[in-house]
Amino acid sequence: MRSGRLASRVDRVTTHDVAVVGSGVAGLTVALETSGLDVAVLTPARPGETGSSQMAQGGVAAAVGPGDSPASHAADTLAAADGHANPARVRMLTEEGPARVAALLAIGARLDLDRRGGLALGREAAHSHPRIVHANGDATGAEIVRALGAEVRATEHVRCYEQTTAQEIVVQQGRAVGVLALDGQGARVLHLARAVVLATGGIGQLYRHTTNPPGNVGDGLAMASRIGARLEDLEFVQFHPTALAVGADPMPLLTEALRGAGATLIDEQGYPLMRGQHPAGDLASRDVVARTLWQRLADGGGVRLDARPIVDRDLEKTFPTAVRHCRAHGFDLTRDPVPVTPAAHYHMGGIAVDGDGRTTVPGLWACGEVSAVGVHGANRLASNSLLEGLVFGARVGRDLVRTTSEVPPIKVDVVSRRADPLTSLSSDEALTIRTEVRDIMWERVGLVRDADGLHEARAALADVAARLPDGLSPSRRFVDVARLVTEAALARPESRGAHFRRDGWAAGSVREAGRR
Questions:
Q1: Which of 88, 91, 192, 483 is 20 to 30 A off residue 296, Cα-Cα?
Q2: Which of the four pLDDT bands, split at 50, 70 and 90, describes residue 362?
Q3: Catalytic one among 131, 286, 358, 434?
Q4: Do 173 and 33 reside in the same domain of the chain?
Q5: What are the residues facing 459 on neighbouring strands?
Q6: Is 271 exposed, middle or buried (0-12, 13-18, 19+ CB in 10 A)?
Q7: Is 270 left (phi over 0), alpha (psi -120 to 50) or beta?
């Protein structure tokens, strides 16, 4: 395979207290919670214009309504996690959630209000109470990132390096001391820092069908793995049940809140598909609903989302994003059932961290979807992802304020200015690799897995890797992450949550000894 070898050198060096890679909800929250520190935010685009956070429709789950409590929220989260979550971390999530919602309001986030002026609360699958806080109906992520981004841009201690793509974490004597990145002109910039935070998002683009934007390719996992950080629970990939079944990449998401409001999943004849499948019906957890729809489609049937039962809810106002997505592809959600399909949506696994986001590598923190903090377990509860970014992003920021002053400033002369070579493929070659890997992952490491398929995926991915030139490249990282997920799936012979092995056994409700 032809390749171009980029210069193995560093063109420019910057020095900061903290380097944050990523500008979604988690990364921006870290930046805002690090008052008194010199913070660099490295982002491929303007904050709020890329990544999954700004695409999130569902909302933020928080126990802020009458009759609800953090304990109830925690119980729902643990139940959805299929016995694989960390109860102490879940308590952090649910007990600190209401304060994070209040913090959003304090910086001017325009959250939806009810007629009495209180927060309008919706209900989604597997929640026992209405506790989903929304903004602009189903455009919650965009509004939260707008508010956080505006606050970051007005904050003197934070500098955003836009058009910047992280390539690798720099380590000196076993400690993360910076990030090597490419700027918009292709220069290699070494951003030295006393602390590095990865908030790079998920891995959905590893799959042929996904709701994730093009940048969600697992770069953070690849960079962390390369320097020896422990990764955890990579086999747990959540597939959202209701992506609009059209030839788009990413596939438009039709928020779960539609079913929370009363929309139903039906077949071509109008029969309710979740009837008899689970006591909660259409509001069963995502893994249950997604596998039911997957089986229906595998058997040659059709799947439709029918919002006609809730047309009196003024869908144009309450679900404007979903209505717009459907119209863009020739469907009228207010009048007709629309075709849906499961699609890769969220990664419960990631870089192993403690409750303050510390990884196993000194000087490296992680938060948001790239991390595995233990709150989602084997299956994430709806609308807990934005909440996780807010809660644990804030915890990371506070931990950095407490600890970073103890670390001596990183000096340029103690860090090698030479970097590992970067290898570039032609755009056609890179696209071929990406398409091949996404097909392998969808067919063999998708919603329903077995040993034969996983072994086939392992061999096929090894073949792809062998065809890549030596050196760092986006394609190399892409293949590496796919191989890590595949190996994790092979290592877990049971079925648990989003990891379903048709040749395995159903997991019990108690975590195995020795985990976390």
A1: 483
A2: very high
A3: 286
A4: yes
A5: none
A6: exposed
A7: left
* 102 backbone dihedrals φ, ψ, rounded to 5°: -60, -35
The reply to whether 188 and 163 lie within a common domain is: yes
Enter the tokens of residue 432. Answer: 């071929």
Tokens of 399: 């931990």
pLDDT of res. 247: 86
Q: What is the CATH number of the domain that holds 372?
A: 3.50.50.60
258: Cα separation from own chain's centroid: 21
Which residue range forms the structural domain that includes residue 362?
Answer: 4-54+140-236+346-414
Question: At what angle are helices 427-444 and 451-466 packed, to 10 degrees?
Answer: 170
Tell me: pLDDT of 514 over 90.
no
Residue with tokens 């007005």: 154
Q: For 62-187, where are the E strands, in sequence order?
A: 121-122, 132-133, 158-161, 165-172, 175-182
Q: Do residues 58 and 138 make contact, with C-beta atoms less than 8 angstroms apart?
A: yes
End-to-end CA distance of the chain: give it in Å, rounded. 42
Are 149 and 30 part of one and the same domain?
A: yes
Judgement on whether residues 301 and 350 belong to the same structural domain of the protein: no
Q: Are residues 168 and 256 in the same domain?
A: no
Q: What CATH number should be reported for the domain holding residue 460?
A: 1.20.58.100
Alpha-carbon gap, residue 502 to 298, rounded angstroms: 14
Q: What H or E segment, with its residue span, contains residue 389?
A: helix 385-403
Residues 6+ positions from 73 with CB-CB distance below 8 Å: 61, 62, 63, 94, 97, 127, 129, 131
Query: Do 212 and 335 reside in the same domain of the chain?
Result: no
- Residues with Cβ within 8 Å of residue 124, at least 6 apart in sequence: 58, 59, 61, 132, 256, 257, 259, 260, 283, 382, 383
Higher-confidence position of 420 and 223: 223
For the chain, the domain total comes to 3
Task: Name every residue whose Cβ is closer than 8 Å to that of residue 227 and which is 6 or more positions away in sequence.
Answer: 168, 169, 171, 176, 361, 364
- The residues that bridge with 239 in the sheet, in sequence order, are 344
DSSP alpha helix (H) spans, 107-241: 140-153, 219-226
- The pLDDT assigned to 515 comes to 37
Residue whose structure tokens are 């935070």: 197
Q: What is the pLDDT of residues 383-424, one digit of tens each?
A: 999 999 999 999 999 999 999 989 988 876 655 544 556 666
One domain, residues 153 and 38: yes
Locus of tokens 């303007």: 46
8 Å CB contact between 209 and 243: yes
Q: What CATH number corresponds to the domain at position 269?
A: 3.90.700.10
Whether 286 is catalytic is yes
Residue given tokens 């990145």 in the structure block: 181
| Cβ atoms of 287 and 448 closer than 8 Å | no
* List of long-range contacts for 444-447, beta carbons under 8 Å, 24+ apart: 444/486, 445/237, 445/482, 445/485, 445/486, 445/489, 446/207, 446/239, 446/344, 447/239, 447/290, 447/291, 447/294, 447/342, 447/500
